Structure formats: C-alpha cells, structure tokens
Amino acid sequence: MSVLSDFHVHTTFSGDGEAAAETMIRRAVELGMEQLCLTDHMDYDYRDGDVCFEFDPKEYFHHLEQLREKYRGQIDLQIGVELGLRPYLTARHHSLIFSYPFDFVIGSVHLVNSRDPYYASYFENRDEFGAYMEYFECCLHNLEAYSNFDAFGHLDYVIRYGPNRNRYYSYDLFRGIIDEILRLLVKKNIALEVNTTGYRYGLGEPNPGRDIILRYRELGGKLITIGSDAHREEHLAYKFDEVAKLIKSCGFSSYYTFHKRVPTEVPL
User: Cα–Cα distance between 161 and 120 in angstroms, integer?
Assistant: First the structure.
C-alpha cells in the first residue's frame, strides 16, 4: 500500500457509521497502516432525514484516548472531526474545535440550503446542472464564512448522487466557481482532500477527480490529504494504491497527515 494513513474515517459515533472505533483500528492494523485518523460527523442542526449527526465530544475523546493508549506501538491514532459547514454555525464550530484537542479537522458541505444531495429529493423537478451549481456556490459561501479547519472534504460530493452522476459533469463545465473555491483553499492554506469514495460510487475517480487536482496544483496548492470516507471496515483505505498513482500523475510527490493540527509531509 502506497498510502499508509487514512484521514477520513467514520465509526458508530457518526449517525451513519456501521463499525465501532476499535473495529476500524483493528482493521487498520491488519492492513499495515501506520496512522489512522477517526473523523466522525458533527453536523449540527441536520434535519434532512432522521439521522442524528452529532456526538458527545467529551465521551468521544474519553473513548478514543483509551483506544490510542491500547494500540500504541501498533498504530498512531489521531482524533479528528468532520464539520458539516453552514455559515450560521461558525461560532459553534469555533467553540468545538478550540474546546477539545482535535488533531485534524475536515470542513465539508453536506447540506445545501438545508437539503442533502444524498437524497433524491434534492434533484427533483430541477436540472442537474443547476443542482450541481447550487452545491458549488454553497461550498464557496461556506469557505468565505469560516475557514478554521485543515482540509476541505470531498469537494464535488454532489456528483455521487446526481441522476447521471458524473456522466455529463466536468471540471470545465464549472471552471469559474471551482476555481474560486480552489483559490480560497490556497489562500487560506487549507488542504484539498482526495476522497476515494468516488471509486465506490462508480465514478471511476475520487472526489475530486484528476482535473480539479491538477488545477489545485496549478493555482499553487500544495496540501493534499487522502481519505476513504469509510463507514464500515471493508472500505478502509479503499483504492489507496490507485489514488496514490493518480495524485503522483498530477505532479504531487507527497500527501499530508496532521497531528495537533500541524501538517506533516509524507512521500508518496
């Protein structure tokens, strides 16, 4: 395995997680991984569907710190979180990440004007282009509102669930808005996450894909993180060898991991 660290992983602390934290850790050890960062969902005020995406951070740290000690010497466990970005939540997010010693913070957009593209209802009675554009505009607005996180998660998350997924989608089609997003990431020194879930959804590439990764580099981006977005143990480190080759083909010779929110460069 070329990439020995998975920095986007969910457990049963996430409302949609299917594997306990220790199950994920054991699987990572079996795979020979050097580092694992658990990044459970904290999507405050999620109302689209009946799943709760909030956890008790005190309980979270108590449990994960015990597991970190138990598996010390076998794997380096980092404690992270995935924030569900919404402009009006900036104060709550700021309070959370400065109240607990997170090693890594992902900022992601799951809700677009209170609707999650995960559900088919997001796309009902509208054209696919407009649905995708609304998502990217929401990403930009969120980045303008709050940026105290380390990596921006699954930039084109919306295409996983579109009626045609990425059949008619391309970076060129949304170049203007995506470039604005990428420039902000570079300006604010936020990493671009390469999320391998796209392979599992039959996209043939990660989220985001090759063209966006290339453009991020052209605009001066240097920080890449890699995550499987696993919610069950069999998806841990999914297609990491393949994504490592892709990232290298885009001109990157390394990716980054985080500890106490400080990035460390890791050769590919």
Answer: 7
Give burial (CB, 10 Å; 0-12/13-18/19+) of 234: exposed
Query: From CA 105, how far away is CA 4, in angstroms rounded?
Result: 19
Sheet holding 191-195, edge to edge: 5-6, 35-42, 76-84, 104-108, 151-152, 191-195, 224-227
Which among 108, 186, 193, 106 is positioned nearest to 150, based on CA atoms?
106
151: nearest Cα among 85, 101, 232, 218: 85
Question: d(Cα 105, Cα 176) in Å, to the nearest integer?
Answer: 27
Q: What is the value of pTM for the model shown?
A: 0.98
Q: How confident is the model at residue 3 (pLDDT cuts 50, 70, 90)?
A: confident
Q: Strands 254-259 and 224-227, how do they pair?
A: unpaired
Task: Provide the b/e sequence for 30-57 (b: ≥16 CB within 10 Å).
Answer: ebebebbbbbbbbbeebebeeeebbbeb
Residue 6 to residue 246: CA distance in whole angstroms: 16
DSSP 118-138: TSGGGGTTS-HHHHHHHHHHH
% the chain with pLDDT above 70: 100
pLDDT band, very low/low/confident/very high, at 49 (cuts 50, 70, 90)? confident
* Total Cβ atoms within 10 A of residue 28: 27
